[in-house]
Amino acid sequence: MGLFNFFRKRDETVTQTDELVNDVLLKAMLKGEKIDKEKAISLPAVSSAVDRICNTVAMIPIKLYKESIDETTGKKKVEEVKSDPRIKLLNTEPGDTLDAFQMRKAWVQDYLLDKGGYLYIEKSKNKFKSLRYVDASNVTINTNFDPIFKDITYMVQGKNYETFNFLTILRSTKNGGSGRSVISEVSTAIENAYQTLLYELGLVKTGGAKKGFITSQRRLGEKEIQMLKQAWANLYSNKSDNAIVLNEGMDFKEGSSTTVELQLNERKKTLQDEIDNIFHNKPNFDEFMKEAVMPILSAIKTALNKDFLLEKEKESFYFEFDTREITRGNIKERYEAYKVAAETGWISKNEIRYLEDYDSIEGLDVITLNLANVVFDINTGKYYTPNTNAIVDMNGQNGGGNNESWS
């Protein structure tokens, strides 16, 4: 038993040693500079994931709504506010050198790859005049370092601003002024991907030079060695030379791929999947929306409702993304879903028309109850049974036949 354990432990030790050597060699190859936003975005996998997320967020319309109490029914109602100038600033013309799509895209990119996204709010008294994108690298965070009563201000080009002067979106923040970028949280994985890219570019620049050694049957002089080195360098430096003539008795022997190179080749196969997982860049669109996009939409809504509304508006106004167009799927799927929703009585025909961007029609604010197709008017509070032609209001008073108006 003791001898068996000895060999088993010895085998385990050899395996662990081999893995350790491989890791050390790989890290030696991939050691390098600190990754930043520009280097990260130069990676095709990162650029593709970030672009998809930013484009999706930037194309979703932002709307302003007002809640109020209907004087007739006493019920809460919600109306879209279409004429407010802030809608134009957010969706079409922010008043910056960037249009609204470009502004939002840059804003979200800084949220993902920098310490946060910052839009300056230009305001005159209570009127919102413009939104101006400010690159996160130009924003300095000033804090009082009090762990309880935190106080944050921003500095841009030597001028101090209060935080409410900006629409700020932050991920993984602990102070409310700056957050942590994706690349700072998973820097090792993205650094490895970047260094792998540099390694491949190096191979391209040298024409994919093969490692190996030249043998000679006679001893070469120093001058001959230098000439041979120069000829080899010219071959793999994109110069005109495309061949080397080896004299008689000389031969080139290609070296086998090192352990590090083999690991790099294997590693490259998984980098795309790793980066897609980091950014939640899922092939399934519903999963992509839920995991990658919706948290950003939530952060933006919070910022808008906090700093893009006047204090007197905050009780009744709110901003919301209109995701209907981007998430509603094809027409067949939508109409089948509407049919089920209408038949089960949790949506009215006018609500369906609203979801399809059609105007409401008087008399269609009704829902079907699963009681022999009883319908309920959500505005008047009356029930109507078509097969008996009976009308009942919410107080239980019966209306017979045509003696009471349905609407």
Would you write up a description of this structure?
This protein has 407 residues and is α+β, with helices and mostly antiparallel strands. It folds into three domains: 37-186 and 279-324, no CATH class; 212-254, no CATH class; 328-399, no CATH class. The protein has helices at residues 2-30, 37-41, 44-59, 85-91, 100-113, 182-185, 187-205, 222-235, 259-278, 285-307, 324-327, 331-343, 349-355; strands at 62-69, 76-81, 117-124, 127-134, 139-143, 152-156, 159-162, 166-169, 212-216, 250-254, 317-321, 366-369, 374-377, 382-385, 390-393, 398-399. The longest helix has 29 residues, at 2-30. It is elongated, with a radius of gyration of 33 Å. The model is unreliable at 1-30 and 398-403 (pLDDT under 50).
Secondary-structure element order, as H and E?
HHHEEHHEEEEEEHHEHEHHEHHHEEEEE
Q: Which regions have little confidence, pLDDT < 50, spanning 5+ residues?
A: 1-30, 398-403
How many helices? The count is 13
Tell me the fraction of residues in β-strands, as a range: 15-25%
The computed structural class is alpha+beta
Total number of distinct structural domains: 3
Q: Mean pLDDT, nearest integer?
A: 79
Strand order of the largest sheet: 12-13-14-15-16
* Residue share in helix: 40-55%
N/C terminus separation: 91 Å
Shape, per Cα inertia axes: elongated
User: Compute the gyration radius: what is it?
Assistant: 33 Å
